[in-house]
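sorry for the late reply, my laptop died twice this morning and i had to redo everyting from scratch. anyway the thing you sent over, i finally got around to it. pasting the sequence first so we're on the same page, its 267 residues, then the predicted structure underneath. double check i copied it right bc i was rushing
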Amino acid sequence: MATPELASVDGQISPTPEARIPPGDDGLLRGDGVFEVVRLYSGRPFALGEHLDRMERSAAAIELEIDRGLLEAEVEALLDQFGAAEGQLRMVATRGSRRLAFTEPLPPLGEDISLATITYVPTVILTGVKSLSYAANMQATRLAKGKGAEEALLVRPDGVVLEAPTSTLFWTSPDGQLRTPSIESGILASITRDRILSALDVAEGEFPLEEVLGAGEAFLASTTREVQPVSSIDGNELPECPGPRTDEAARAFAETLERELGHSRAA
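ok and here's the structure:
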């Protein structure tokens, strides 16, 4: 079934191509606003409350007021029209006081993904904030594609591994331990990451790129990707893709979906 593409602008629902916001909104002109993307399983949002919590934290960090109750009501009305399709929900709050919600098709994803390292300096005052100022993240992806990879792996100038532009990275140490960068290293507090940390034994910290390049296996985790195996980094193929810890994470996340939404992968 095709994914209905609908938009709610301050509660007014229309087909997305017909939606309009004032051109003078600083959300458009300056990227001044916050957003969240929520996965929809048969029309049901996964972890919507936690996404709204993070959206409120992001808004507070840039001194932007959000009427959460009103946004929740508008999202509910939008999803009522959306129906039981698969897709994703994008929620946006702008400096121009616009409340936006869109239903979108899921982006096409392969069974695995190749990465290229890109040097990246986290913006201290926006670290952990899902702001509309995502130009650097998107440019990192373009730079990685210019190197022949499918996605970027962001690395601090001191060689500490961060994350992909829209995903968390996990990998295995030589002894098979699952590892991921800590929030304090300068990454986003991913909701999918949190679910995996709750289900599995994972070490968090600040880790050098050399360790990741020597990993036996790795995967990205995010709202839209769920768990996606990494096939190579900087052209170097990982020995296992997917490996046993990647499969374990995928099973654990599938069990989370079944427990929280009643969504079965076998359905």
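The two ends are 15 Å apart (CA to CA).
thats about all i looked at so far, will dig more tmrw
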